Amino acid sequence: MLTDLTISELGARFRSGEATSTEATRAYLARVDALDSELRAFLTVTREQALAQAADADARFRAGQPLGPLDGVPVALKDVLCTRGVRTTCGSKILEHFVPPYDATAVTRLLDAGAVLLGKLNMDEFAMGSSTEHSAFFPTRNPWDLDRVPGGSSGGAAAAVAARLAAATLGTDTGGSIRQPAAFCGTVGFKPTYGRVSRYGLIAFASSLDQIGPFTRSVEDAALVLGTIAGVDPMDSTSVDVPVPDYRADLARGIEGLRIGIPAEYFIDGMDPEVETGVRAAIATLERLGARTEPVSLPHTEYGLAAYYLIAPAEASSNLARYDGVKYGLRSPGGKDLIDMYSRTRAAGFGDEVKRRVMLGTYALSAGYYDAYYGQAQRVRTLLARDFAQAFERVDVIAAPTTPGVAFKFGERAEPLQMYLNDIFAVPVNLAGLPGVSVPAGFTAGGLPIGLQLIGRAFDEATLLRTAHAYEQATEWRARKPALGADR
Amino acid sequence: MSAETTYETVIGLEVHAQLSTATKMFCGCSTAFGAAPNTQTCPVCQGMPGSLPVINHRAIEFGIKTALALGCRVNAANRFARKHYYYPDMPKNYQISQYEEPLAEDGRLAIAPGDASREIGIQRLHLEEDVGKLVHEGTLETATASHVDYNRAGVPLMEIVSRPDLRSPDEAAAYLRALRAILVYLGVCDGNMEEGSLRCDANVSLRPRGQEALGTKIEIKNMNSFKNVQHALEYEVRRQTQALASGQRLAQETRLWDPDAGRTVSMRSKEYAHDYRYFPEPDLPPLDVPPRWVEDIRAGLPELPAAKRERFAHAYGLSAYDADLLTQGRGLAEYFEEATRAHGNAKTVANWVLNELLRELPGDDDTAVAACPIPPAHLVGLLRLIDDGTISGRIAKDVFEKMYRSGEPAEAIVRREGLTQVADAGELGGVVERVLAEHPKVVADFGAGKKAALGFLVGQVMKATGGRANPAVVNALLAEKLTKT
């Protein structure tokens, strides 16, 4: 089936004429039609646009002038990325009918590479959450177990790739929002170095942490998508001008002699023993492949979550101030004056989790509290970055679990703190601005995916991809597919 | 002792200058004034989701220029910060400004109110973005609808904060004039207060003379002309003096100047003061200002008003007052110097520029001077016609007006209209005879010792010749004829 192929396999078929982009696009749209009423990964399906783009790609292949490895490949985007002329909700009522007049830079780069846009994917509102239960519209289900969450906030993007509703998707990772759902759904999820991919057109949650990255079914595909969207952008002053290597070229070099650090702080009491077993087995596999492992210490890890829940809400409270009913998006009627209009609009437009974080952040930035909260959190951030820097003096890559547990059931983490703990191994990477990837590392006895997290030096995505690829090629995990629809 | 002598006035000014860059502070939109509403906007300056700011380096350069002219220390690393408050004219509900790490700090500005020269401290200079403009249908209180124009949103603003060193409304006005002259000289701001490209807020407090600690600070806003600044401050000093003299305590507050009523009115008290929740702008990395850049900008600084004023007074022997007027704008100063170089007599040129030229020009700013229909060479041409006796000073003033209207050189007008001065005694003799014949009574009065009668007769001759007669020759002729009779 075309929908089971990786991007590179699909590209080979397009070039040989064995398949067309239109056929692949129709096949994916057919799966969306058949399965998504149950999975609910998509918020918007851009059927006509997709078929038109596929026809253009086919014309290029017929003329012998394809644009590159992504030409004609059907992809979908987390609904946090602005798409010109296609509504972009950010999973929120307040932007339910918002149609941006511009594309995010990462989207432009995908489209310029010939990718076909199937639609926009569900997410926790404003990317705040770890289960997609905070979407203002509906929750997305985990393809491996429909009673469980796909993770979040990029739950739709992870579920769509796992369920073969798209060849690849883009998500965003502020505090684990790519790696955690990738682990829950058994896909590759790559969070690049902060500054590697332009944030222009990414609807901001926490500006100093947000990064865009791919969900794919193979590491090679992640390398292809990352190579397409990465690189400095004059529209984003925080993007960094570091040359983007050909990530795919280096993949097969192997990991003989690679030094891998294992942080004790990432194997904690209370984590799911099956996850620990799975990750330890994955580390053993890496050793068999020639890597040398050694313990490393990241002593400030335990403060990561607290620092994250000050910095991210503080920035969010500022970034979300613009949704006020004046210019675009929802405006609640009946306001008796300006302040009343603001209050009604924001009360109706934002969900509880967003309100919680806006209030947390507003408090943390208030005069008199700034130093104790935001200032202190920034100091923790510096210490976390130093932990990693010291570890990377001795090792090339750090290996750890992506999450302490596997996908949980809907409603199981109703307590906000319970939910936040999901990202305990993810947020230090964001706070330090480093690249991280979650790779499928097997399944629990109950058939739920486990994620291995690999963390790298800033802008050394190539080593991470090479390590992840070596592991993936040495295991059979990616052959397994979730049973959905008629397959069940 | 009266209340005025018991208290000392303490004023600090916060000046906002719109920078005259072609594009906005954080996007590429035009800053041109007067376009149709919301036509000079983009996702960035409309604060759309996902848009990001990019620093306009030209604005930074303008800020550094000004900082150097004010003797400030330019910070090598400086940061932008977000300042939060909700208002519909601000697209993001935060303003990108600078807070803890401004572009420059610790400068000074010399002012010369009356005869004394004083140095006023500059606390800080920083850059930020302007907000949009609200248009209400009706008044703010009764409007049924309000519209917002974001053309101005994102235009670069430079805020210059003085230390509380000003001691009177006069000093405040002098400070503002001196600061405006510098901004205009540097070409970083057009200095137009009425159009809002230069805005001023004041902090005013009074303290018992001899006391070190500052009194209760009152902020005054909405003073959109030099005159308003001075009047508002005078009013506020009077109000506070009376309040303190009658034993009242002043509360820290913000007051608005109402120019029609001629008084300040309370806007908000300190309890309602905003908590702006400043934090470093995460969308912009810290901005490095390498010393090399600063030195390049310093090397390119023009001669500043104070130095030019000094030089004009010395080199051209002008009064301090004339030198000050001539150096308000760089364009006017250059006009004066070019004309003086060509003509030679600085005082004569200064008189013509300050009296005749400024009477005709719509202002003394560079735009007005650049659009002046009389170039310096034409003014010099006119002055030469006076010098060589071709026309009289009186005729010259008429010719000047015609030059201003037509843009023609003086020679052309004088030739075409036959305005050449008549100094020929033979030609004038006949006119003198006729005038004497027509006014026998005046002639008799003169004979009876009424010397003033001569002036009347000179006037009649001038009138009869259309002002072209050489006054000295007419005087001599009349004197000769009158003594004969």
Structure characterization notes:
The complex is a heterodimer of chains A (488) and B (485). Chain A is α/β, with parallel strands linked by helices and 488 residues long. Chain A has a domain at 2-257: Amidase signature (AS) domain (Amidase signature (AS) enzymes, Alpha-Beta Complex). Chain A has 15 helices and 11 strands. The longest helix of chain A is centred in the C-terminal third of the chain and has 21 residues, at 371-391. By secondary structure, chain B is α+β, with helices and mostly antiparallel strands. Chain B folds into 3 domains: 3-295, no CATH class; 303-417, no CATH class; 425-484, Orthogonal Bundle (Arc Repressor Mutant, subunit A). Helix content of chain B is 41%, strand content 19%. Chain B has a 9-stranded mixed sheet. A 3-stranded antiparallel sheet of chain B has the order 5-4-15, with no helix packed on it. In chain B, strand 6 and strand 7 form a beta hairpin. The radius of gyration of chain B is 30 Å and the shape is elongated. The model of chain B has no long low-confidence stretch (mean pLDDT 91). The chains are: A alpha/beta (488), B alpha+beta (485). At the A-B interface, helix 9 and helix 10 of A face loops of B.
SSE map:
The complex is a heterodimer of chains A (488) and B (485).
Chain A: H1 7-16, H2 21-39, E1 42-45, H3 47-62, E2 74-78, H4 105-112, E3 116-121, H5 155-162, E4 168-173, H6 179-185, E5 188-191, E6 211-216, H7 219-229, E7 259-263, H8 273-288, E8 292-296, H9 304-319, H10 338-349, H11 352-365, H12 371-391, E9 397-401, H13 416-420, H14 427-432, E10 436-443, E11 449-456, H15 461-474
Parallel strand pairs in A: 2-3, 2-4, 7-8, 7-9
Antiparallel strand pairs in A: 1-3, 4-6, 5-6, 5-10, 9-11, 10-11
Chain B: H1 3-6, E1 7-18, H2 57-69, E2 73-74, E3 77-78, E4 81-84, E5 94-97, E6 104-111, E7 118-129, E8 133-136, E9 146-149, E10 156-162, H3 169-186, E11 198-208, E12 218-221, H4 226-245, E13 253-258, E14 263-269, E15 279-280, E16 287-288, H5 291-299, H6 305-316, H7 320-326, H8 330-343, H9 346-360, H10 366-370, H11 376-387, H12 393-406, H13 410-417, H14 425-438, H15 440-447, H16 452-464, H17 471-484
Parallel strand pairs in B: 12-13
Antiparallel strand pairs in B: 1-10, 1-11, 2-6, 3-16, 4-5, 4-15, 6-7, 7-10, 8-9, 11-12, 13-14
Helix pairs in contact in B: 3-4, 6-7, 8-9, 8-11, 11-12, 14-16, 14-17, 15-16, 16-17
